[in-house]
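Record type: ASSEMBLY
Status: queued
Input:
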Amino acid sequence: MAITREEVLHVARLARLSLPEAEAERLRDELSAILDYVKQLDRLDTHDVVPTSHAIEMGTPFRDDVVEPFGDKEALLANAPDRLNDFFRVPRIIED
Amino acid sequence: MANVPVHEWSLLEAARKVREKEISSRELTGALLLRIESLEPKVHAYITVLPEAATAQAAACDEELARGNVRGPLHGVPIGLKDIFCTRGARTTCGSRILHNFDPPYDACVTEKVLAAGAVLLGKQNMDEFAMGSSTETSAFGPTRNPWDLSRIPGGSSGGTAAAVAAALCFAGVGTDTGGSIRQPASLCGVVGVKPTYGRVSRYGMIAFASSLDQAGPIARTVADAAALLGWIAGYDRRDSTCVDTPVPDYLAAVERPARGLRVGLPKEYFEGGGLSPEVRAAVENALKALIDQGAVVVEVSLPHTSYALSTYYLIAPAEASSNLARYDGVRYGFREEGAPGLIEMMSRTRAKGFGDEVKRRIMIGTYALSAGYYEAFYGKAQKVRTLIRDDFAKAFEAADVLLTPTAPTPAFRLGEKTGDPLTMYLSDIYTIPCNLAGIPGISVPCGFSTEGLPIGAQLLSKPFREETLFTAAGAIERALPFPRVAPLEG
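Status: finished
Output:
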């Protein structure tokens, strides 16, 4: 199942990955090969099969909706690549 | 046994000797730090070694013991953790450039549990980037080498932990397994590795790859060590909503239990096909003979959808990964590529430079499989086939208590041998992947050597929450096929 260069670039935009030209070409070949391989699943009739979203059967666990403060705000902010006081600083959001 | 060097002791022996004051934690920790200093340049099992912190922890353990206080069953014993578990005060990279400077604001549940048990943390162990790989070659910090043959890979993604245990650069470690990442490197390094039932060990603070498949588990040199360590890290944790609230049995007691009457199933699909090396097949047959000699009964079983497991995995795992890895955007932590004119461009450049090729490949596959128009055909289809694979196991476990298979199709391959073709690398996990899809527990236990002197492991699988059965069967194999504990590396 060959995918096109345009599809590769579209998926890269969705995934927020900037791709140089050469990498897009290589990824197109690699993704095509992998998608060819996984298409073998189409040989199975799964019309009446219930999908698995959780391997171990268990109900949804509930808890009371109680706020628990993390406490160490400084430890969180200390990892920021760029901060201003108690804020994460980023480049401008509205691009030209 | 009087002359067994300190580093070759088992985890349980080391723990007993510290507790009984035959050796101090400082001496024990010092001996391993010296060994790390001399052998790390060859093996590269660690991303970060923590000599000062470990020495301080050991000193504190000694002082507390002198006052009669024992922190827990691992009091003063040095171990390692895969660099996927958050450790407060020690950077946690997940093998990625994008987290090269990440200083976690909290400890993972596994970290808390090993520290509460009294363990001394020697360092954070190497791994494939975001646990995506079967050789540690995708680590942004360079590959780990197999201690049995330094020209070969240790397996992956928990290759650093398996190599460190095999080279006696720690007494045991904790890894993670999404498609074989504990069992495959354990097999290739000649050590014991356990992938517990999904939900047995908390995933809190363990950096996510594919959340419906990821589990943490022990890597150790003996079955008893692995059993004990699993007991100390398992158990309910409300901070992981998929963690199951069920009692933790005495795994260590299961190791000595007789294997008599155990129904051992051989799934025929795992022994067909050309990919299985004859040497691996022969070694696994020896493991089977060991079980039969101790009174186990053989039954043939079938897992008819086995050949679809790899495809199912390579849709589900990348899809979940593409979602989990969306958080690495250069805003709150980790690497940021400077100089972009706007936010979106900053994120796209940061991710392009911060992630390696394999991670990008999987993000791309996953994003594609989840994108508009393809979701049903790919991700939806894979979730349905996952049900068929689970049903296969449920049926097999009506006839068998435990399944015996190879862990990996071949012994350790050479560095660079499979990096050129992603699909060839993916085939390394062909026998380990179905277990994760089904959520069941598995163990790899050493069962022989190739003619080139490379370790071979046998995999055992059991029903959900029947890890005890795995330890009983693995204990029987270990007793019949005693294995050198430590790889013969020059000091």
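Annotation: Chain A touches chain B through 53 residues (CB under 8 Å).
Annotation: The mean pLDDT of chain A is 91.
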